[in-house]
Design a protein that fits this description.
Blueprint (H helix, E strand, L loop, with lengths): L10 E2 L6 H13 L2 E4 L8 H15 L3 H5 L13 E3 L14 E5 L2 E2 L2 E2 L5 H4 L2 H25 L24 E7 L16 E4 L5 E6 L6 E4 L5 E3 L15 E5 L1 H6 L9 E3 L12 E8 L13 H6 L14 H13 L9
Parallel strand pairs: 1-2
Antiparallel strand pairs: 2-12, 3-4, 4-7, 5-6, 7-14, 8-13, 9-12, 9-14, 10-11, 10-13
Helix pairs in contact: 1-5
Bound molecules: 2-oxoglutaric acid (AKG) and fe (ii) ion.
The site of 2-oxoglutaric acid has 11 residues, from strand 7, strand 9, strand 13 and strand 14.
Keywords: Iron, Metal-binding, Oxidoreductase
Family: Belongs to the iron/ascorbate-dependent oxidoreductase family.
Protein name: Oxidoreductase-like protein
């Protein structure tokens, strides 16, 4: 894959929410579907991010038999998963060059799924990290509600956040590992990809990337691929790189296409020899509570700027779960009992 030009995404500072910040974040999400949240360490501490990556590295380095015990499958109701899509050899090219581990929501600090040995002893740390991701997502949703000028009597700032819950939502915390492709592997530089083009399904996604491990690309408003810098201009001396936020299909539907669910992918670095180096990332996919009705947002902003590409096209009120099921069925023919995404 050839390296695309870098996109300059807005960097939003949520430390002092205001009408201006609300407008800024709505415009960023309406234009690009992706934006950065300035990370000064107040919401999620740099050490906590470091630690989460450390645990991820330990897990992915653990023996294949260990990882194989938690493969996604109907037998474990999709709670857990070592999701390996690498094709070893051969000339059939499908799937991404990546591994991932998905956690469902935690309950009282405990995972609801069997965890592999290397992660089981860190359950409470992992749960805390997922909770801090959820809390930051709520801040983002509050900023959208401010930007949408939702009236106090209609639910105000909490309109979205009250429809999401740290335990009851269908949110997924995912650790991702894109291994360097070994010399002898059957790897075709301009064809193979680390994560194929897709959009995310839920409300919003938080994405943590590592300095020196680029690869994320998004489709720009002019429909071209552009790379997303890990450390954008002006954040070089922040305690931690800014956290990427992107809009998922559900929130785009809910806002009638005003907020964009942007297609993105992860490519191999073009300047690295062959398959490059290992890349790690962490994503938190926020979903609403499954039974939440996706009713029109009481907002003049959404009514006047919506694109007529979502909720106004629907003949019935979908729940969060039904929306997810439809997306899964469209992508894979899966039902939600088979797999969480
Ligand atoms: O690893 C990344 O940077 C992106 C991952 C991603 O887009 C996903 O898992 O949905
Ligand atoms: Fe994604």
């Amino acid at each position: 894959m050839s390296g695309a030009a870098a996109v300059e995404l807005p960097i939003i500072d949520l430390s002092k929410p205001s009408a201006e910040v609300g407008e800024e974040i709505v415009n960023a999400a309406a234009t690009y579907g992706f934006l950065y949240i300035k990370n000064t360490g107040r919401d999620i501490k740099p050490e906590a991010i470091e630690r989460a990556f450390e645990l991820s590295r330990e897990f992915f380095a653990s023996p294949e038999e260990e990882k194989a015990k938690c493969l996604i499958g109907p037998e474990n109701k999709g709670w857990s998963s070592m999701h390996r899509e690498i094709l070893d050899q051969g000339n059939q090219r499908k799937g991404d060059f990546k591994e991932a581990f998905n956690f469902g929501t935690f309950e009282n600090g405990k995972a609801r799924q069997p965890l592999p040995k290397s992660l089981a002893s860190h359950e409470s740390e992992l749960s805390q990290f997922a909770t801090s991701c959820h809390d930051l997502c709520m801040k983002v949703l509050r900023a959208f509600a401010i930007g949408f000028k939702i009236k106090e009597e209609d639910g105000g700032e909490e309109w979205f956040s009250s429809r999401h819950d740290v335990e009851k939502s269908s949110s997924i915390f995912r650790m991702l590992y894109y291994p360097a492709v070994p010399e002898e592997a059957d790897y075709i530089p301009d064809v193979d990809i680390r994560a194929g083009a897709h959009s995310d399904y839920g409300s919003i996604t938080l994405l943590f990337q590592r300095p020196g491990q680029p690869g994320l690309e998004i489709k720009t408003p002019s429909d071209e691929w552009a790379s997303v810098p890990v450390i954008p201009n002006g954040t070089e001396s922040d305690p931690s790189p800014p956290i990427l936020v992107n809009i998922g299909d559900l929130l785009s539907y809910w806002t009638d296409g005003l907020l964009k669910s942007t297609v993105h992918r992860v490519i191999f670095p073009s300047d690295a020899r062959r398959g490059g180096e290992d890349r790690y990332s962490i994503a938190y996919f926020l979903h609403p509570c499954p039974e939440v009705n996706l009713v029109p947002i009481p907002s003049e902003v959404v009514a006047s700027r919506g694109k007529g590409e979502g909720i106004t096209q629907s003949k019935r009120v979908l729940t969060g779960q039904q929306h997810l099921d439809e997306r899964l069925a469209a992508s894979y023919g899966w039902k939600s009992e088979d797999k969480k995404a």
